[in-house]
Amino acid sequence: MDSSVHLDNTVMQFGDFTAIQKTDLKIQSGEFFSFLGPSGCGKTTILNMISGFIDPTQGDIKIGGKSMRGVPANKRPTSMIFQNLALFPLMTVAENIEFGLEVRGVSKSERKKASDRLLELVALEGSGTKRVSELSGGQKQRIAIARALAVEPQVLLLDEPLSALDLKLRQHMRTELKAIQRKTGITFIYITHDQGEALTMSDRVAVMSAGRIQQVADPITLYRDPHTAFVASFVGENNGVRGKVVEAGSEYITLDCGPLGKLVGRSQGHANIGDEATLFVRPEHFRLTAEDGMHTLQASINEVNFEGSYLTLNANTSADQTLSIQLGTHQYSDALHKGAPVSLSYHEKDAIVIAGAGYV
Amino acid sequence: MFNQLKARFGSGLAVGITGMIAIWLIGLVILPQLLMVDYSFRPNLLPADIGGPKDTYSLTNYETLFNNQIHLKIFFKTIWSSVLVTTLTLLVSYPIAFYLAKVATPQKAALCLLLLIIPFWINEILRTFSWYIILAYKGPLNALLLGLGLIDRPIRFLSGDGGVLIGMVYAYILFMIFPIYNAIESLDSNQVKAARNLGAGWIRTHWRVIIPHAKPGIATGCIMTFMLAAGSYAVPALLGSPGSRWFTQIIYNWFFEGGDWNQGAAYAFLLLVICIGFIALVMRIFKVGLGDIAK
After folding, report:
1. pLDDT tens digit sequence for A111-123
2. CA distance B196 to chain A (A)
3. Residues of B with CB under 8 A from a CB of A
4. What ipTM was predicted for this assembly?
5. CA A30 from chain center: how many Å?
6. Do the Cβ atoms of B156 and B150 come closer than 8 Å?
């Protein structure tokens, strides 16, 4: 069954405010797709458009190739897991799960069968007669999943459903969600501001900012090859060093970073000589000892934090910029203390240069 | 409660506040009621005979109602009509309350609430009189219906139950709207979205999700409306007489025209007891507890 979702030149405006800039995006059938972005970036609006709670101002939403324009929320082949779950508190667990089937006129015995099967899927056999208030946070989570799956949707929409759970449970639910997605084979569209969730579970991630999709890629590509300064700094930790382009090759770009000297990184998009640009180096890509072909910048240590398996350093450059550096604990020595000078080296292939005046 | 007041205001003021509440409750509520209970069991006597040998307690005043077919009929009609008023008010108020709580923007809701409340700054008698004018045989409503060609002859709204029902629904609509509005407003909007998302149409969403949630509010509104309707005097007196008499009018007649306070008190208590019993029964049927209503 084709359960792809196509945002076909979709625009969403609320009065004068454009919540979603013109977007054309195809989500494959059976894909685990995430929208990642800070709050207010428009990701919830996208979910509301797909589920039919609002209609796009321009363009269309297509599910399985069919236009959803004018199709009300209760007639769409989608089902949603809400951030606060929105389980019906006055119904039992089984009634919650069976609600969608009850609406569709499925007989009582068939409904019972379905809810038993779904309770088994989410490993809560025999909880059907319980009240929602008797369940723990993680159990409620699973009931919400079961309820959403009961209507056999083509597309499951998840609105930050894990944000209310504690860390352990959240990590556990990530694996479980992924497993359920594999088992059912339906399209999952997940929205979150938590990059850990987006990166661990998704096949592809769309990073959003201010109503615009910045980049769509698989998690590794997103991390290694961010296309925009926003993605570079939003996904994972990153150090940005500003400079002017002095040499622009097809593969590498050299920046003049003032007191820090000339620094080189992989070219990410086009840049002209004289342009403002930012060089991004991730904390884990800094080394304390330079090897051949590495680039080095000087800084002084501001803070050393021991985190167990790794150390983080906070260092200030002579351009008064704070860098964060991550080192393996085996690299610890007495030389690393507040105020000590440190040379930080990186391979040019591990750094990227993104043209443009700003970085977030 | 006294200790809390004492902790906050000191013992002097606490005694003062509690004392005033006690005087108000005992002197103005409990004692008059007890006096009326006492009255209702005693015969109506000349002042000279009060306290004399004829002044004995009996159930005679209560038996009067059951021996008077006309009064009995009006008594049950009052209960039944109050049920009808309550039902109609609920049907009118629920959509308004839902609109105010979940559909309207906050500005629109505030405006609507204001427009609903402003007429109630005017005295109930005056508002009822305006209905008297609207519903009159040659009044504007009949003129409008005739003009639209919906009726051939003017309708006599004012000599039966019709006018009374309309007047009461209007008089008590706020008592129904506000508790329901409060209840629906406290419903998480995602519940409605979830029901829609799972395929429920509007009717089912209301029936299975919104109404069950709003049940305490609906119960509160219904109880208030029912009690007010059953105890209403002005509306039936103005809009229903003489075709539609209310039991309260008979109680009034005993007190002020018959001069028989004892008989009036007995009638009043019968109405009160039946109303409370009826409400208890309805609450039981709809599985609403007193705790739900107090929320």
Report:
1. 999 999 999 888 8
2. 5
3. 188, 190-191, 193-201, 204, 208-209, 212-213
4. 0.79
5. 18
6. no
